[in-house]
Design brief:
Catalyzes the specific phosphorylation of the 3-hydroxyl group of shikimic acid using ATP as a cosubstrate. The protein has helices at about 15-25, 35-40, 45-50, 55-70, 85-95, 105-115, 130-145, 155-174, and strands spanning about 5-10, 30, 75, 95-100, 150. By secondary structure, it is an alpha/beta fold. Helix 1 (about 15-25) crosses helix 8 (about 155-174) and helix 6 packs across helix 7. The structure holds adenosine-5'-triphosphate (ATP), (3R,4S,5R)-3,4,5-trihydroxycyclohex-1-ENE-1-carboxylic acid and magnesium ion.
Protein backbone atom coordinates (compact mmCIF):
# COMPACT_ATOMS: atom_id res chain seq x y z
CA UNK A 1 0.00 0.00 0.00
CA UNK A 2 1.32 3.49 -0.87
CA UNK A 3 1.27 5.65 2.23
CA UNK A 4 -0.04 9.22 2.03
CA UNK A 5 2.55 11.99 1.73
CA UNK A 6 1.97 15.03 3.95
CA UNK A 7 3.54 18.37 3.02
CA UNK A 8 4.06 20.67 5.99
CA UNK A 9 5.53 24.16 6.38
CA UNK A 10 4.67 27.80 6.88
CA UNK A 11 2.37 29.84 4.65
CA UNK A 12 3.84 30.37 1.21
CA UNK A 13 6.36 27.51 1.33
CA UNK A 14 4.55 25.86 -1.60
CA UNK A 15 2.52 23.02 -0.05
CA UNK A 16 -0.33 23.54 -2.51
CA UNK A 17 1.84 24.32 -5.55
CA UNK A 18 4.36 21.53 -4.96
CA UNK A 19 1.69 19.11 -3.77
CA UNK A 20 -0.16 19.31 -7.07
CA UNK A 21 3.04 18.76 -9.10
CA UNK A 22 4.21 15.92 -6.85
CA UNK A 23 0.87 14.13 -7.07
CA UNK A 24 1.09 14.26 -10.88
CA UNK A 25 4.67 12.95 -10.86
CA UNK A 26 3.65 10.01 -8.67
CA UNK A 27 0.23 9.38 -10.21
CA UNK A 28 -1.28 10.02 -6.76
CA UNK A 29 -4.46 11.87 -5.83
CA UNK A 30 -4.07 15.37 -4.36
CA UNK A 31 -5.87 16.87 -1.36
CA UNK A 32 -5.45 20.12 0.54
CA UNK A 33 -6.77 20.47 4.08
CA UNK A 34 -7.50 24.20 3.62
CA UNK A 35 -9.48 23.52 0.43
CA UNK A 36 -11.28 20.58 2.03
CA UNK A 37 -12.36 22.84 4.90
CA UNK A 38 -13.51 25.50 2.50
CA UNK A 39 -15.59 22.95 0.57
CA UNK A 40 -17.18 21.30 3.58
CA UNK A 41 -17.99 24.56 5.39
CA UNK A 42 -18.58 26.70 2.28
CA UNK A 43 -16.54 29.35 4.08
CA UNK A 44 -13.04 30.77 3.77
CA UNK A 45 -10.48 30.57 6.57
CA UNK A 46 -11.06 34.28 7.28
CA UNK A 47 -14.84 33.72 7.55
CA UNK A 48 -14.46 30.73 9.89
CA UNK A 49 -12.02 32.63 12.10
CA UNK A 50 -14.24 35.74 12.17
CA UNK A 51 -17.32 33.69 13.10
CA UNK A 52 -15.82 31.09 15.45
CA UNK A 53 -12.26 32.09 16.35
CA UNK A 54 -8.91 30.34 15.78
CA UNK A 55 -9.52 27.52 18.30
CA UNK A 56 -12.56 26.40 16.35
CA UNK A 57 -10.64 26.67 13.07
CA UNK A 58 -7.87 24.48 14.55
CA UNK A 59 -10.41 21.84 15.64
CA UNK A 60 -11.95 21.80 12.16
CA UNK A 61 -8.45 21.52 10.67
CA UNK A 62 -7.83 18.33 12.68
CA UNK A 63 -11.06 16.86 11.25
CA UNK A 64 -10.02 17.92 7.77
CA UNK A 65 -6.65 16.14 8.13
CA UNK A 66 -8.41 12.89 9.00
CA UNK A 67 -11.00 13.31 6.24
CA UNK A 68 -8.45 13.68 3.44
CA UNK A 69 -6.04 10.98 4.61
CA UNK A 70 -6.05 8.11 2.11
CA UNK A 71 -3.49 5.83 0.45
CA UNK A 72 -1.66 7.11 -2.62
CA UNK A 73 -2.55 10.74 -1.87
CA UNK A 74 -0.36 13.82 -1.58
CA UNK A 75 -1.81 16.05 1.14
CA UNK A 76 -1.03 19.78 1.39
CA UNK A 77 -1.68 20.73 5.01
CA UNK A 78 -2.51 24.10 6.54
CA UNK A 79 0.53 26.03 7.78
CA UNK A 80 -0.56 25.60 11.41
CA UNK A 81 -1.31 21.87 11.24
CA UNK A 82 1.75 21.04 13.34
CA UNK A 83 0.58 23.17 16.27
CA UNK A 84 -1.51 20.30 17.69
CA UNK A 85 0.36 17.31 19.02
CA UNK A 86 -2.48 15.06 17.91
CA UNK A 87 -1.97 16.19 14.30
CA UNK A 88 1.80 15.76 14.47
CA UNK A 89 1.44 12.21 15.74
CA UNK A 90 -1.31 11.37 13.24
CA UNK A 91 0.77 12.47 10.25
CA UNK A 92 3.91 10.64 11.38
CA UNK A 93 1.96 7.46 12.06
CA UNK A 94 -0.07 7.48 8.85
CA UNK A 95 2.39 8.56 6.19
CA UNK A 96 5.61 10.19 5.08
CA UNK A 97 5.94 13.80 6.21
CA UNK A 98 7.93 16.36 4.18
CA UNK A 99 8.84 19.83 5.48
CA UNK A 100 9.17 22.48 2.78
CA UNK A 101 11.60 24.85 4.44
CA UNK A 102 12.55 28.35 3.32
CA UNK A 103 13.68 31.53 5.14
CA UNK A 104 11.00 33.91 6.36
CA UNK A 105 12.15 36.64 3.95
CA UNK A 106 11.45 34.38 0.94
CA UNK A 107 8.06 33.34 2.31
CA UNK A 108 7.03 36.89 3.16
CA UNK A 109 8.02 37.98 -0.35
CA UNK A 110 5.77 35.32 -1.92
CA UNK A 111 2.85 36.24 0.32
CA UNK A 112 3.22 39.94 -0.39
CA UNK A 113 3.00 39.14 -4.10
CA UNK A 114 -0.08 36.95 -3.66
CA UNK A 115 -1.67 37.60 -0.25
CA UNK A 116 -4.93 35.58 -0.68
CA UNK A 117 -6.23 37.28 2.44
CA UNK A 118 -9.41 35.18 2.55
CA UNK A 119 -7.34 32.03 3.11
CA UNK A 120 -4.57 33.71 5.07
CA UNK A 121 -6.03 36.12 7.59
CA UNK A 122 -3.41 37.69 9.84
CA UNK A 123 -2.16 35.45 12.65
CA UNK A 124 -0.61 38.18 14.79
CA UNK A 125 -1.85 41.52 13.45
CA UNK A 126 1.75 42.39 12.52
CA UNK A 127 3.07 43.21 9.02
CA UNK A 128 3.71 40.09 6.88
CA UNK A 129 7.52 40.10 7.09
CA UNK A 130 7.51 40.41 10.88
CA UNK A 131 4.70 37.91 11.28
CA UNK A 132 6.50 35.34 9.14
CA UNK A 133 9.71 35.73 11.09
CA UNK A 134 7.84 35.30 14.41
CA UNK A 135 5.86 32.33 13.12
CA UNK A 136 8.94 30.48 11.86
CA UNK A 137 10.76 31.13 15.13
CA UNK A 138 7.80 29.62 17.01
CA UNK A 139 7.11 26.71 14.70
CA UNK A 140 10.43 25.64 13.15
CA UNK A 141 11.05 23.03 15.85
CA UNK A 142 7.55 21.60 15.33
CA UNK A 143 8.01 21.29 11.57
CA UNK A 144 11.44 19.72 12.17
CA UNK A 145 10.26 17.17 14.71
CA UNK A 146 7.22 16.16 12.64
CA UNK A 147 8.99 15.73 9.31
CA UNK A 148 10.60 12.53 8.08
CA UNK A 149 12.39 14.63 5.44
CA UNK A 150 13.30 18.32 5.08
CA UNK A 151 13.46 19.85 1.61
CA UNK A 152 14.81 23.21 0.45
CA UNK A 153 11.69 25.07 -0.75
CA UNK A 154 13.66 27.96 -2.26
CA UNK A 155 14.44 25.91 -5.35
CA UNK A 156 12.33 26.01 -8.50
CA UNK A 157 9.18 23.85 -8.12
CA UNK A 158 10.51 21.07 -10.43
CA UNK A 159 13.65 20.80 -8.28
CA UNK A 160 11.63 20.72 -5.09
CA UNK A 161 9.60 17.85 -6.50
CA UNK A 162 12.78 16.02 -7.58
CA UNK A 163 14.30 16.41 -4.12
CA UNK A 164 11.17 15.01 -2.50
CA UNK A 165 11.17 12.03 -4.89
CA UNK A 166 14.83 11.41 -4.07
CA UNK A 167 14.20 11.56 -0.33
CA UNK A 168 11.32 9.14 -0.63
CA UNK A 169 13.18 6.63 -2.78
CA UNK A 170 16.24 6.76 -0.53
CA UNK A 171 13.93 6.15 2.41
CA UNK A 172 12.43 3.13 0.65
CA UNK A 173 15.86 1.72 -0.22
CA UNK A 174 17.24 2.03 3.33
N1 LIG B 1 9.33 26.73 -5.23
C1 LIG B 1 8.71 27.89 -5.50
N2 LIG B 1 9.35 28.88 -6.16
C2 LIG B 1 8.75 30.07 -6.42
N3 LIG B 1 7.47 30.38 -6.05
C3 LIG B 1 6.78 29.43 -5.39
C4 LIG B 1 7.34 28.15 -5.08
N4 LIG B 1 6.42 27.43 -4.41
C5 LIG B 1 5.32 28.21 -4.31
N5 LIG B 1 5.53 29.41 -4.91
C6 LIG B 1 4.58 30.55 -4.97
O1 LIG B 1 4.36 30.99 -3.62
C7 LIG B 1 3.00 31.31 -3.41
C8 LIG B 1 2.45 30.45 -2.26
O2 LIG B 1 2.45 29.08 -2.68
P1 LIG B 1 1.39 28.04 -2.09
O3 LIG B 1 0.01 28.63 -2.11
O4 LIG B 1 1.62 26.76 -2.80
O5 LIG B 1 1.88 27.94 -0.58
P2 LIG B 1 1.23 27.14 0.63
O6 LIG B 1 2.35 26.55 1.39
O7 LIG B 1 0.18 26.20 0.12
O8 LIG B 1 0.55 28.32 1.50
P3 LIG B 1 -0.68 28.21 2.57
O9 LIG B 1 -0.13 27.61 3.83
O10 LIG B 1 -1.10 29.62 2.81
O11 LIG B 1 -1.76 27.37 1.96
C9 LIG B 1 2.28 31.09 -4.74
O12 LIG B 1 2.20 32.31 -5.41
C10 LIG B 1 3.21 30.13 -5.50
O13 LIG B 1 3.14 30.30 -6.89
O1 LIG C 1 -0.06 29.21 9.20
C1 LIG C 1 -1.24 29.14 9.58
O2 LIG C 1 -1.55 29.11 10.79
C2 LIG C 1 -2.29 29.03 8.54
C3 LIG C 1 -1.95 28.68 7.25
C4 LIG C 1 -2.96 28.47 6.18
O3 LIG C 1 -2.58 27.34 5.40
C5 LIG C 1 -4.37 28.27 6.72
O4 LIG C 1 -4.53 26.98 7.26
C6 LIG C 1 -4.69 29.30 7.78
O5 LIG C 1 -4.68 30.57 7.17
C7 LIG C 1 -3.70 29.24 8.95
MG1 LIG D 1 -1.85 25.97 0.54
Amino acid sequence: MSLPIYLIGARGCGKTTIGQALSQALGYAFSDTDHNLQLTTQRTVAEIVAAEGWDSFRARETESLRAVTAPATVIATGGGMVLAEVNRRFMREHGQVIWLNAPSTVLADRLERQPEAAQRPTLTGRPIAEEMSDILRERAHLYRQTAHHEVNAMQAPEQVVDQILQSLSLARAS
